[in-house]
Amino acid sequence: MTPPGPAALRLTLALCLLTVARSHADHGPGLPEEEEERGDDTATVTTGEDEGDPEDLEVFYPTRQWQPLLPGRAVPAGSHVRLNLQTGEREAKLQDEEPGPHRPKERRQGPRLGKMDLGPGAYTSQDLKHALARFKEGLELGTPKDDQARRAEVRRRFRPIEELKREFEALNLHLETDLQIMVRLIDKFNSSGATLGDKVAALKDLEYYVHQVDNARDLLTFGGLQLVMGELNSTEPVLKEHAAFVLGAALSSNPKVQVEAIEGGALQKLLLLLATEQPLAVKKKALFALSSLLRHFPHAQLRFLKLGGLQALRNLARDEATRVLAVRVVTLLHDLLAEKLSAEEEASASEVGAEAREKAAQYARVPLVAGLVEQGWCAVVAGLLGRQPDHDPREKVLRALGLLLDFCRDAYRHDSGLGATLARLRDEYSRLAARERRRDRRDGDREVEEEEEEEEAGYFQEMLSTIRLLLRRLD
Ligand SMILES: *[C@@H]1O[C@H](CO)[C@@H](O)[C@H](O)[C@H]1NC(C)=O
Ligand SMILES: *[C@@H]1O[C@H](CO)[C@@H](O)[C@H](O)[C@H]1NC(C)=O
């Protein structure tokens, strides 16, 4: 069973980061007892097609505790990142929350399902530099209250990096920088003697490093990323797959890499992978890389439309062999549409700067809505809803329907299948929400100190209100 949550919330407005992290904690795999409880509620739900897919875990959801940052996770803006020198693991957590009283309120207002990424590149090199600088100083910035304790804890567990370096040097060891490691990996990859296994291993390692914005840029500067892009048309499917994976990770919220990639022809190569006969694993990673390339990059989105990208995606969503990717495709289109609408909305506010206007002008040149409507996406998305047995994909399709509704209203009003599916889901979530409320009350009695949690609408209650809202808007 796939717990609802993580991927649905991928790329959420940086300002809503706290909301995301909390929502995730509420429903994601982070809280085993939650999951077990939910188990009763979802006993009838069959296993999702996406189960165990690494992409669903790609974004790391920081909490206020340090957590190991596994390879293949992207770090959202505002996270602290550090290297635990004892374990050698990277760890990350949320910035310490400002104790503003409005914050928890704010996050309860708009329904969570409506939230989307409105911000520019979600993680900046600045954030990572700050995190690194703090790490190098050997101290953590905490809220005044626990600052002392945390510093003491940090001092107890970690020594300053300079001290460690001296010790390493004394032992004739030295810490390899990320850049040195990447150069070594690319050399290994590029060496004439490398076996297929060596190459795949090098790509897997690289994928870990390029999540850091600066590393991805460094990889560009010495030609490493270009080499990786060249593998997108390798004759070996496994190399295409992993090259796309590295590229997708490097592109995530990294405008400089996005520009280089599009100039280097990555878009055409990715679309070719999506439009031609390829193993599913290759298509999956190509779709991931395509998503990273297009997000927050209107110029790439325009090229994508001109190159017939929407057709390629529609075939992907419709073909039997690649249907499992349909929800991802719809999520991508939802996000692109949301970006565009929010850029335009932002620019229509009374006081806006030149930058917001320019951004809106760029998005205005992307004929995404027309493309979606002309190419029958209203029906594709509506048809997808009834086929999702799991909550998380349903949530994604519902969000897409919510955005498309304004443009697809006529089609949806006459779509009796959609009406019936929504009514069925409304009934199902009414039952689940009622059970959830009872359980919340029970827990509320037990743990009075966690009032905050008590007043929060549960996941199923939010699903229910989303479905009701859609039904009302269709009336
Ligand atoms: C890969 O190897 C070729 C030939 O050996 C060399 O010309 C090229 O510069 C290498 N590329 C990188 C990025 O190291
Ligand atoms: C990949 O495409 C480039 C041009 O885009 C071409 O030069 C290269 O030979 C191709 N590689 C393979 C393995 O087909």
Automatic annotation (TrEMBL):
Signal peptide as annotated in the record: 1-25
Keywords: Endoplasmic reticulum, Glycoprotein, Protein transport, Signal, Translocation, Transport
Gene Ontology cellular component terms for the protein in this record: endoplasmic reticulum; endoplasmic reticulum lumen
Main location: endoplasmic reticulum
Stored InterPro entries: ARM-like (IPR011989), ARM-type_fold (IPR016024), Hsp70_NEF-Inhibitors (IPR050693)
Subcellular location: Endoplasmic reticulum lumen
Biased composition (Basic and acidic residues): 89-109
Gene Ontology MF terms in the entry: adenyl-nucleotide exchange factor activity; identical protein binding
Zinc-finger is among the record's keywords: no
Residue ranges, annotated region (Disordered): 25-55, 89-123
Keyword Transcription attributed: no
One of the protein's GO biological processes: protein transport
Domain of life: Eukaryota
Entry similarity comment: Belongs to the SIL1 family.
Subunit structure: Interacts with HSPA5.
Role according to the record: Required for protein translocation and folding in the endoplasmic reticulum (ER). Functions as a nucleotide exchange factor for the ER lumenal chaperone HSPA5.
Protein name, per record: Nucleotide exchange factor SIL1
